Amino acid sequence: MRIFSDINEFNREISKNATETAVAIGKFDGIHRGHQKLIEVIKSMQARGLKSVVFTFDMPPAAFFTGHDVAVLTTNDERREYLAENDVDYLIEYPVNQETISTEPEVFIRDVLRDKLNARVVAAGSDCSFGKDGRGNLELLRSMQGCMGFETVEVDKVRYNGEEISSTLVRSKVSDGDMEAARELLGHPYSFAGKVSHGRKLGSSELSMPTVNIMPEKNKLLPPFGVYFSDVVIGSEIFHGITNVGRKPTLSDHEAVSVETFLYDFDDDIYGENLRVELLHWRREERKFENLDALKKQMHEDMEAGRMWHKNIDAKY
Q1: What pLDDT score does 267 carry?
Q2: What is the pLDDT of residue 313?
Q3: Cα–Cα distance between 316 and 307 in angstroms, integer?
Q4: Distance in angstroms (rounded) separating the CA atoms of residues 30 and 183
Q5: What is the pTM of this model?
Q6: 3-state SS string for the chain
Q7: Could you tell me if 16 and 45 lie in one domain?
Q8: Same structural domain, 116 and 49
Q9: Considering the domain boundaries, does residue 161 fall inside one?
Q10: Strand partners, 233
Q11: How far apart are CA 177 and CA 143, in angstroms?
Q12: Total structural domains in the chain?
């Protein structure tokens, strides 16, 4: 997958071979089942010789308008990895700035979709919005498609338990610690991706429980601090474990937020490697214990409960 932030550069790239495209428009935060349906539509157009393009933004537009970070389900790096794994041809991370947010939607359709992206198919949900004041919508795409030379494909909403799946709904489930519901909405577990870093090494030295530690990006949406049953994906392998998301208050009052995982029956040195931690089930809240012995006792109980939970899950599949 090729990634572009400069649509002029993208246009130069596709102009070499007169490439025509199928474009999906959206924020793609979380890449939930509704987003996946959009992606499948543009990928299906490859049979017509069209290259698939996901058109999104380099930052949440709300972050630009408010001037501060907005928590996201999927960081830019995580989104890139997912789309690459799912064989999207191109990703456009359109810059959010005063000029781009002030673009009239009709101008966006003409200058960006038609002239720069060479779109022959544009796929969008019924609630899509773009251009100045968010005035661009599905109706405008349809009204201009004839003269702009593309076909507009409306992608119906996906529903879960009677509710339309949206990034807002996913955020509410993650914020509640309901990882099973989040997984149903996303079509995959809620996860953290990153490079294994060295913590204070108390897990291996004082608790006799070696762990892998990653630091979440500052704008990544955090679930409630606590212990979760989890899977860790390293390359093509999956390992079961338990994960603590939080500040480890028993060890220090000033710990940075981390995602720290104990893997059952695993002691390889993977410092510096990239991995993905998938949160599967809420176990308990994070709390401060009176001493390390009390923490160690609770962690052993968590580990045994986690082993049993994973064993039961594995037996179902």
Answers
A1: 77
A2: 86
A3: 15
A4: 11
A5: 0.90
A6: CEEECCHHHHHHHHHCCCCCEEEEECCCCCCCHHHHHHHHHHHHHHHHCCEEEEEEECCCHHHHHHCCCCCECCCHHHHHHHHHHCCCCEEEEECCCHHHHCCCHHHHHHHHHHHHCCEEEEEEECCCCECHHHCECHHHHHHHHHHHCCEEEEECCCEECCEECCHHHHHHHHHHCCHHHHHHHHCCCEEEEEECECCCCHHHHCCCCCCEEECCCCCECCCCCEEEEEEEEECCEEEEEEEEEECCCCCCCCCCCEEEEEECCCCCCCCCCEEEEEEEEEEEECCCCCCHHHHHHHHHHHHHHHHHHHHHHHHHC
A7: yes
A8: yes
A9: no
A10: 238, 276
A11: 43
A12: 2
pLDDT recorded at residue 140 = 97
Q: Provide the pLDDT for residue 266.
A: 82
- Torsion angle of C-alpha atoms 143, 144, 146, 148, degrees rounded to 10: -170
Contact 279, 179 (CB under 8 A): yes
Residue 204 confidence (pLDDT): 43
> Can you tell me the mean pLDDT for 45-68?
92
How much is the mean pLDDT over the chain? 91
The separation between CA 86 and the C-alpha centre of its own chain, rounded to angstroms, equals: 13
Q: Are residues 150 and 8 in the same domain?
A: yes
- My answer on whether 307 and 284 are in the same domain is yes
Domain that holds residue 85: 2-156
